[in-house]
Write a structure and sequence with these properties.
five-stranded antiparallel sheet, single chain, 46% strand
């Protein structure tokens, strides 16, 4: 069963020059740690919880009609 989101505020920002999509869950805040996936997604963490994602080379990874 799916759980309710803890935040209703999700913000998306795209940097076209760097081709990076930033996704923030709640108010943007500084991360104190991060993990990088093999697919080029940076998972930004604060106190062990995900506060955002950064998707590198976003144009090739996302389907945008």
């Amino acid at each position: 069963m799916a759980k309710e989101l803890l935040t209703k505020e999700i913000k998306f920002n795209y940097d076209s020059e760097g081709d990076v999509l930033y996704i923030n869950f709640g108010k943007p805040e500084a991360a104190d740690d991060s993990d990088v996936t093999d697919g080029g997604v940076i998972i930004r963490l604060r106190e062990g919880k995900i506060v955002g994602l950064s998707i590198l080379n976003a144009k090739e990874k996302l389907y945008i009609p």
